[in-house]
């Protein structure tokens, strides 16, 4: 319970904030609490939205009071405590990215802000797999953790009103990409031709929380080749297995 | 079926929204003005969750290929049925071959058209709501186009025959200056005292960047203590984000499910219908609201909706003769009394 804050988000929303940092163990607690609340739900909880370090619970005030819901959350927090003793197998999905140029208009700023070259930004960005802490913002948007502080860059002061689908960005020490065209305030460094969301597919979402993504640099011609395949529904991303401590499914 | 001759400025199919997929980043969408949406379905004899058309600022032109019972609620878009004006907040029978034409909104911003049986476009992830940004729901996820044929389903409880008109007390007045009640949080502690004071004591103007996703406002800059960024967390409808530039953005039906800017507070649910009817150039003041007041306002809205259902059901059983309405107070409790001549 230490450090956990319970906050209001309107008359139908309750936020459980575990901490003020991005950390895999804290994120596992968020997802575990999310699962426990859904298991006990009799219809009074409309939906839960797990994020990096907090959980938004949408409830129906006609069916449960904020007080009773708060009591229930507190009683479940211990059961959601982190346990990283077990090993689990996670998926690592390869995401090809064409960096810089018109696809990544902010890469020069990211390089300059961190006192390195654009090539170093790409090298650092593609060097490790990133854990999908959460999906959010727009359908299939993966919020990733574990990015090097060497390329961390603040968000734009004024968000852009229109960002093309596939744009890969950096916001503080977060990274990720925009699966659909939308507004946004991230620094754009490249673009992927991979579709993370397809409403016509059996499973419309390419990733789930707990998966890992690894960015892989490609050139413009390869980008166009993959984009054509993806548009025809013929592109299958490369996926490999990774053993991790305390995975969500362990 | 119903043929779209002209779609209007921005007309989409909407229902209660696509709940249950926000953990995958799928926005809820759904009717922006949930009160007008709900009233339209009640007047049309539909189930509360039936799909309707939501028209924005300028309505469309539709031809009815069979007899339908239709209702119109929300903004007054100067509707005409075969050339004769019809009122907003009313339900009526439309004969085969009839044409229903809307024009610009002269009050409010969004008009809901419900058809008995509901609109029967495919259900995608549990909802018929259109979310244009990801091309989901409605007509291939886009706004209505000329030539679109609107299929009608069976989401109805009853098939009304008589014209229906809501009593005046159930019809909201749309003004170009509105007051919105706000529950502080979840990140009000990121703002300085001066910032909070500015927020509650300034008048904000709705900018031209106001759509189903969010309303960007212009006015006095709201001061943060230190920073405007947080570790991204979830956003509910009505959440008021304040990015680094200090101007508020209110999250609406098509809002992103999560975001990384501080949220000073949340507009309470019952006041969002009023905001959904506001247009660029309209002005807003925010009023601080307690948890208890917010819960009470929620209960009041729910009661109004259930009374609305009772009134419509009651009127349906009555002869269509003239009625006189009185307000009577007994033991400080207000009663609405209707007297009709019975032959």
TrEMBL record, chain A:
The record places domain Carboxyltransferase at 4-207
- SUPFAM superfamilies given for it? Cyclophilin-like, PH0987 N-terminal domain-like
Q: Does the keyword Oxidoreductase apply?
A: no
InterPro entries named among the record's database cross-references:
CT_C_D, Cyclophilin-like_dom_sf, PxpB
Keyword tags: ATP-binding, Hydrolase, Nucleotide-binding
State whether keyword Chloroplast applies: no
Q: What is this protein called?
A: Kinase A inhibitor
From TrEMBL, chain B:
Ranges of residues in domain Carboxyltransferase: 23-305
| Species, as recorded | Sporomusa sphaeroides DSM 2875
A Pfam family the protein falls into: CT_A_B
Instruction: Cite the SUPFAM superfamilies for this sequence.
Output: Cyclophilin-like
**Protein name as annotated:** KipI antagonist
Recorded superkingdom: Bacteria
Q: Does the record carry Hydrolase as a key word?
A: yes
Keyword Nuclease found: no
* Swiss-Prot/TrEMBL keywords: ATP-binding, Hydrolase, Nucleotide-binding
């Amino acid at each position: 319970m230490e450090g956990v804050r319970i906050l209001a988000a309107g008359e139908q929303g309750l936020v459980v904030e575990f901490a003020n940092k991005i950390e895999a163990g804290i994120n596992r607690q968020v997802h575990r609490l999310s699962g426990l609340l859904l298991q006990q739900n009799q219809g009074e909880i409309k939906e839960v939205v797990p994020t990096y370090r907090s959980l938004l619970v949408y409830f129906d005030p006609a069916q449960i009071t904020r007080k009773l819901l708060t009591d229930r959350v507190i009683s479940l927090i211990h059961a959601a405590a982190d346990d990283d003793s077990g090993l689990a197998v996670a998926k690592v999905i390869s995401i090809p990215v064409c960096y810089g140029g018109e696809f990544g208009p902010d890469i020069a700023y990211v390089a300059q802000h961190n006192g390195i070259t654009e090539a170093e930004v790409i090298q650092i960005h593609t060097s490790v797999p990133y854990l999908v802490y959460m999906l959010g913002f727009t359908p299939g948007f993966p919020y990733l953790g574990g990015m090097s502080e060497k390329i961390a860059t603040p968000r734009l002061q004024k968000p852009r009103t229109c960002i093309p689908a596939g744009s890969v960005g950096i916001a503080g020490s977060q990274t990720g990409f925009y699966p659909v065209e939308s507004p946004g305030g991230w620094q754009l460094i490249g673009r992927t031709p991979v579709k993370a969301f397809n409403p016509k597919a059996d499973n419309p979402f390419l990733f789930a929380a707990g998966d890992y993504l690894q960015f892989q640099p490609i050139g413009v011609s390869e980008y166009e080749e993959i984009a054509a395949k993806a548009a025809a529904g013929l592109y299958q991303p490369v996926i490999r297995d990774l053993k991790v401590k305390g995975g969500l499914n362990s | 079926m119903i043929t779209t001759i002209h779609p209007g400025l921005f007309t989409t199919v909407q229902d209660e929204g696509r709940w249950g997929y926000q953990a995958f980043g799928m926005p809820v969408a759904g009717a922006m003005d949930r009160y007008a949406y709900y009233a339209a379905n009640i007047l049309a004899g539909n189930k509360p969750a039936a799909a309707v058309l939501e028209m924005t600022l300028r309505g469309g032109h539709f031809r009815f290929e069979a007899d339908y019972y239709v209702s119109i609620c929300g903004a007054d878009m100067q509707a005409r049925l075969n050339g004769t004006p019809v009122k907003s907040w009313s339900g009526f029978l439309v004969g085969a071959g009839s044409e229903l034409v809307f024009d610009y909104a002269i009050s409010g911003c969004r008009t809901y058209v419900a058809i008995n049986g509901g609109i029967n476009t495919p259900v995608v992830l549990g909802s018929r709501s259109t979310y244009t940004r990801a091309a989901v729901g409605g007509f291939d996820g886009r706004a209505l186009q000329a030539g679109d044929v609107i299929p009608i389903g069976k989401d109805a409880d009853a098939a009304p025959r008589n014209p229906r008109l809501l009593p005046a007390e159930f019809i909201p007045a749309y003004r170009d200056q509105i007051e919105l009640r706000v529950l502080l949080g979840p990140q009000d502690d990121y703002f300085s005292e001066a910032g909070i004071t500015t927020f509650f004591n300034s008048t904000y103007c709705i900018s031209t960047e106001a759509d189903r996703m969010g309303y960007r406002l212009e006015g006095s800059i709201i001061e943060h203590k230190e920073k405007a960024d947080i570790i991204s967390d979830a956003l509910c409808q009505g959440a008021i984000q304040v990015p680094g530039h200090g101007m508020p953005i209110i999250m609406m039906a098509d809002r992103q499910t999560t975001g990384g800017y501080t949220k000073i507070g949340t507009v309470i649910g019952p006041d969002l219908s009023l905001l959904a009817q506001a247009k660029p150039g309209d002005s807003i003041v925010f009023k601080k609201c307690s948890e208890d007041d917010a819960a009470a306002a929620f209960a009041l809205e729910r009661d109004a909706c259930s009374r609305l259902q009772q009134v419509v059901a009651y009127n349906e059983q009555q002869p269509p003769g003239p009625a006189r309405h009185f307000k009577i107070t007994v033991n400080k409790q207000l009663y609405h009394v209707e007297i009709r001549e019975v032959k």
